[in-house]
Amino acid sequence: MTNIYNNKKIRVGIVGYGNLGKGVELSVSQNHDIALVGVFTRRNPKTIKTLFKSTKVFSIDDADAMKNEIDVMILCGGSATDLLQQSIDFAKNFNIIDSFDTHAKIPHHFSAVNKIALSSGHIAIISVGWDPGLFSLNRLYAESILPFGATYTFWGDGVSQGHSDAIRRIDGVEDAVQYTIPIQEAIDTIRSGEMPLLSAKQKHRRVCFVVAEEAFDKDEIKDKIVNMPDYFIDYDTKVYFISKEELHEKHSKMKHGGFVLRSGFTGQNNNTKHIYEFSLKLESNPEFTASVLTAYARAAFKLRLEGAKGAKTVYDIAPSYIYPGSNSKLRKEFL
Amino acid sequence: MTNIYNNKKIRVGIVGYGNLGKGVELSVSQNHDIALVGVFTRRNPKTIKTLFKSTKVFSIDDADAMKNEIDVMILCGGSATDLLQQSIDFAKNFNIIDSFDTHAKIPHHFSAVNKIALSSGHIAIISVGWDPGLFSLNRLYAESILPFGATYTFWGDGVSQGHSDAIRRIDGVEDAVQYTIPIQEAIDTIRSGEMPLLSAKQKHRRVCFVVAEEAFDKDEIKDKIVNMPDYFIDYDTKVYFISKEELHEKHSKMKHGGFVLRSGFTGQNNNTKHIYEFSLKLESNPEFTASVLTAYARAAFKLRLEGAKGAKTVYDIAPSYIYPGSNSKLRKEFL
Fold first, then answer.
1. Whether complex ipTM tops 0.90
2. What is the pTM of this model?
3. What span, in angstroms and rounded, lies between the C-alpha atoms of A191 and B244?
4. Which chain A residues are within 8 Å of B278, Cβ to Cβ?
5. pLDDT of A281-301, one tens digit each?
6. Is the CB of B267 less than 8 angstroms away from the CB of A280?
7. Left, alpha or beta for A149 (phi > 0: left; psi -120 to 50: alpha)?
8. Do A110 and A315 meet the contact criterion of CB atoms below 8 Å apart?
9. Less crowded by CB within 10 Å, the N or C end of chain A?
10. Do A145 and B295 touch (CB under 8 A)?
């Protein structure tokens, strides 16, 4: 096929084959200027069953030897355990994209990856996805354009992996799924042009579906959940005990989404109201996040072609870089 | 004040002092890293009453002599009559921003301005605002991330200047205001995850408030409106005849807004649905558009500091350029 990179496809690899890695495998198949070289796993490659039969699986230990066959490595590990180390390791030999989403540690992660990528001559785009990612972009656009006002981010309704994990760590909990649900009244108030001060409880509520082990007291588990510091104590939390079967049947989907809203003001007396709103409603959080990663893999490739290097975030990437066509087509058809 | 440009403020000028120019005057006052040098007008400067007493007014003929005092000239003329020529003229001596919004002529305008800006060593960001502008960005982000799907743009409800002007050109019409109103059912259908094929009539309806001259037949005027090719014939159009006083009293606000929606699909059988939505609800179209222009004036200044030149659009500008703070602050507080 013809594209703007001298008729070549962008060759990507996937590191880690969980839900996110599978999402990238699917996403690459939708992008005709991108080709998947293979999946790199810490497990025994022979035990991995990929979604597409044609997808090759390699040991993660063989990745470095294939550095000349891969333009961008898409890292699909978790923020808690994998990415802080993997992004640094892979940026030595590859252009990389990661979805590092521990907000408080982003500055540290950026510096660490930047140092390696600058010295190895690669591009490393970190914290790509929808939050951090598209939501971050909208917070920036909204506030830069309307400096007077207030920005609100709401998540859900959708499953919070962190909160579900926190419940699972309680003694007597066999499994659990936690939904974060935005408070509709709060969103409506902001949409009407108000700038309310909202507590955590006024923005989101939490609903937990828990599978308890027989021998444990449910009231005690419930108490531990609703009073858990950081995670639940500041929210209205509902806890439902259900069977393992029901949990798998009804709560294994990975839908998510949310809103970024800015209520802003202009005018001589700052009395002209504007509402800026961005929202996502996603049936699959990992499949959508993977689609954002794939689009930014294209940007990493284009940036590297131009000689850029070092760590980047979505803020540093001109939007045209994620588009598969030419800039003149873009101006003609999208502007 | 301290900022990232060596403690200097960005010095901007405004060319043209209509609603948009006034909006920029207001917007600059909200941005502490930007200073307004003055307004440049084709009228006699002595006849101009600015919103702020401190705003200086100059003749447009004196602009070139002040080229060393202005970092970015913000062009606030109209697309139909002014910008095709003014952007070229001013790009000879200034970095410029314009809001050129005649979609079909953007490629031509880009080339013409690019040629001048490259040879004069300036930055010229064209077609800045919300559509073209923020809506264009969202069409790009949505489609690049979700290549399978359909994107829809809805405008309104708000006043269309072009349609109002078209009515005013009819014999016997003294004044008129035309509202473009999106069809709620169409938006709801897309939000539910459908990808309907929508005709013009199924996306928007048009409501016209018309002041007719005594001597003319209202039914005839109405016929001419609803059957006007390009503007009205493909839509459900309602026409109301009202008095001059009522038009001024009830229909002189310049509210506008709209939606960009993408219904996209991922997954092995493309059966995972995602809804991407961006919307604006603006009490003043010119004040908001002006706020976008001011933010991109900052980007023009930063780009020029780095040595960039030539014509650009919002697609070519990394988001961080419109932000007044440092990139590390941005990563820490917004990502």
1. yes
2. 0.95
3. 33
4. 138, 277-279
5. 999 999 999 999 999 999 999
6. no
7. left
8. no
9. N
10. yes
